[in-house]
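Input record, target 12 of the design panel.
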């Protein structure tokens, strides 16, 4: 069993290994970062440190409607990122099963997804936040 943070984006339930999660926050003011990849909304101050704010919808190839201020903060290769989600629902100890052989996922989903979990009868992709960090996104 692994402890997962359960989140939602674009109507989809996702499970994030709790070991990847630094905190869950509401993002305040975001300063645009000119020249950043399209998936980067900008940068924000978080407890005396700067985080790169990632538009998780764009990173996953989903249509962006209105961005939620809910973010999961993670550290990847020494840099802090705030990954935006529609909602962060719960934490749960769940059993992850690997993705089936031959199962193909499109675009960034293939870089982020690494298994499946089931929570209260709902199948969810287990994703890695590191797989959603765009190249050249740290500031």
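The sequence produced for target 12 reads:
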């Amino acid at each position: 069993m692994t402890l997962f943070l359960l989140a939602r984006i674009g109507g989809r339930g996702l499970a994030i290994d709790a070991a990847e999660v630094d905190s869950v926050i509401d993002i305040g003011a975001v300063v645009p970062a000119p020249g950043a990849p399209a998936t980067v909304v900008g940068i924000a101050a978080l407890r005396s440190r700067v985080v790169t704010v990632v538009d998780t919808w764009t990173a996953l190839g989903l249509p962006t409607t209105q961005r939620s201020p809910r973010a999961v903060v993670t550290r990847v290769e020494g840099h802090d990122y705030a990954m935006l989600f529609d909602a962060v629902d719960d934490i749960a100890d769940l059993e992850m099963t690997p993705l089936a052989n031959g199962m193909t996922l499109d675009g960034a989903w293939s870089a982020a997804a690494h298994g499946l979990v089931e929570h209260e009868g709902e199948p969810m992709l287990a994703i890695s936040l590191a797989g959603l960090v765009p190249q050249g996104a740290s500031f």
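The helical segments are 56-59, 107-112.
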